[in-house]
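Possible race condition, two jobs.
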Amino acid sequence: MKAVILLSGGLDSATVLALAKSEGRACHAISFVYGQRHEIELAAARRVASAIGVAEHVVYPLDLRVFGGSALTADIDVPKDAADAEGIPVTYVPARNTIFLSLALGFAEARDANEIWIGVNAVDYSGYPDCRPDFIEAFQQVILRGTKSGLEHAEPHLVAPLITMSKAEIIRRGTELGVDYSLTHSCYDPDASGRACGHCDSCILRRRGFQEAGVSDPTVYKA
């Protein structure tokens, strides 16, 4: 089985890559440079791809700063200490997972891949609408109805193995698989040296996950 893996360099995507490898998939990773303020995550993606092992790692350039509309792609402050706030946070990037999955789908068709693996999570997900099961189900219909591989083979199949797991459960599973989480990066607002802020949504969920998992957090925080 050949699989395309969306690899951001974060905790979740590293775990997804390790899961796919453990299930015998030939993994073709794709990462995106999309104008994100935390572009340092691309270095983490390369480290993770090298450590776990992939057949190919494509880094796809696009600039979502042209659209803006997000604290990650525009001159908008990243909210701090607000991980449990209701509603969709300003760190939501308009249609990001739809865009990323569309590009991953093109990559998968070009490589005759059977699957596309993505690390979306509907439990600890900060309120993003494109991390929910109904979004994944809807995009699967796009594949089946709008691609040659979908019409002829009903593939590639979307695989979202973390979607019902808590962050602690993800960390425990990744630890069992030998994932080195010190190679990953999650912070939306790191300093110039790459240290995590410790207060953005992503940092809070990551730190809480390690605490609840009973696993030592390897993240280097500013404070």
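Job #2 (started ~2 s after job #1):
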Amino acid sequence: MCAPWYVPLVVLMVVKNLHVRDMEAYLAENVVARVCIGCQANPRPQIRDHSNIARAYAALGKEGIEEVNALLRHVARDDGFAEVSRVSADTTAQELPIGSPNEPGILRGWAQRCGRALAKLKTRAVLGVETARAQVQTILKTVKEHHLFAKGKQAKRQVVTRWLTEVGQVVVQTRRLGQGLGERRDRVTHTALTTLTTMHEVAKRLIPQSVQWITTGVVAKGKIVPAGVTQARAIVRHKAGKDVAFGLPYLRSRLGGGDVFGTLIRGVVDASKMPLQALAGYRKIFGAHATPTLLVYDRGGYAAATLRALAREGGKERGIQPKGHGVGHVAEAVRATVRSARGKTEGIIGTLKTDK
């Protein structure tokens, strides 16, 4: 296979949402796939295996994948498959496979990650690693003490307070390990030190949040949920049967015709500003001055400042459901389109979050 074939091959894999092994089998068996990558004239084409496909996909990178997706949306618009004059957006939480988080569980996850990194450094006979590993074991024993023996709010608070002191000691000890190694860096050592450095950053944010919870009983804004995925948040939903979701907040936007794009929301989710973020995401794809004729969002995005900003940007119809007795900003004839767009957006978000 010559190098130019990799471009349509990766594009086809992105469109079909196939794994590299599935893509290898698809190329070997499907005539349409051969036509797509331009090798239909060769009776015996040399089809690369999954490892070559994986390297081509990795070389493309995240930015390359985003460019491919943007190109596909332009093609869909030009061929009439996507109606870019209508955009319907909504936020969602991609929940992680974790239980309801609590302070002991988060700190235990932090200690376990440090312990695995220290175990790697032990294989390299790093001086001082045993002291740090002993301190990590102390933290894990304190977890058991909290679960089994701490009875009552005051006793649990004392255990968590001691815990934070032990976490601080691990941070100090592991930082000294990195300083003592100097320029000695092989692959195993580098990986272990990278993990420890990441956990230092987690502790830097987590300890003040834990102190606030201990002293005031109020959960800090942007509270870390698991130590391994620091972007995850506790997202208040106020929905029947599920008040809080634990995971990654996303903004998803749907074009007329069904194409979807979106982004991970950084920081606190402010629903009143999400319509403006949806417009920014739309312009990132279609141009700095592109504006949809109709922008649809639920009542969470209904705010006077947001509506004025959308009006200044040139949006003709602002299909944001009003709160309470507020007045809608779309004509009567457009309201059916707004309701339809909202329903389709909810449906496609539900589909994206399933394994299928």
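The domain at 103-216 is CATH 1.20.1440 (de novo design (two linked rop proteins)).
Logs attached separately.
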